[in-house]
What does this fold into?
Amino acid sequence: MQKYFIDKKQDQWILTKEQEHQILHVMRAAKKDQFLFIYDGAFYQVEIDCLSPLHFKTIEKKEAKTELPVDITLLYCLPKGNKLDFVLQKATELGVKNIVLVESSRVITKIKKEDLPHKLERYRKIIMEAAEQCGRAYLPKIDALISFEKIDHYLSDLNFIAYEQETENFLSKKLLKNALSYSILIGPEGGFSSEEVLLAKQKGFQSVSLGKRILRSETAVLYSLSLLSNFAEEKEYEHL
Ligand code: SAM
It folds into this structure.
């Protein structure tokens, strides 16, 4: 069943023009067609009861069980090219709650201040499509592009900087069952300077290794988010 993140005011479903167009003209939906609307962390099974104006009746509200039991914030240093699109999609599928773009010293791609609102709009579309596809109950937030110095504005219970030169602390050894939130900082293709790693440690981030190989930045995101989400979710299968 096609899923949509929909706004709701009082008891009315408020679709965007794009969503209406998609349902009426792309999917050519008919009366009695059913959809799953996602709103405020719950799923609503709805059915078209009028096509013009488009109106839905709610059949059933279902609790959503697709969110991670922990909040993960990904602090991601801007990558080259269009890797960011891929990372936004995968981070959404892997359950991330917040994505913060970071301009560290070795970032090559720059985003002009005046271009940021438009780019964030496009990033939010990628996130929404990924969230609808994988059945998220909440949309991950992406609101900011920050300088490296501001990373401590996004602290969690446990905070990690994935450092390619780290040889001691392996990420999985640093996870705690009672942590309710994690922040993970991933560097750009050029990696982190030693000054940045020192500053991150002063700001409460632990330097961690993701293994003995140098991963591409997008692979490092996949690796670390998979590990964090798996560690968090396996608790939910322990009793099975
Ligand atoms: N230019 C760096 C070098 O050659 O050493 C590599 C940077 S790597 C392409 C991009 C980012 O991915 C790093 O800054 C780090 O955040 C993460 N990363 C990649 N491999 C890692 C590893 N083995 N341990 C920890 N972090 C890693």
User: Anything to note?
Assistant: The chain has a mean pLDDT of 95. The chain has two domains: 3-63, 71-238. Residues 162-164, 166, 186-187, 189-192, 209-211, 213-217, 220 surround S-adenosylmethionine (CB under 6 Å). The two ends are 28 Å apart (CA to CA).
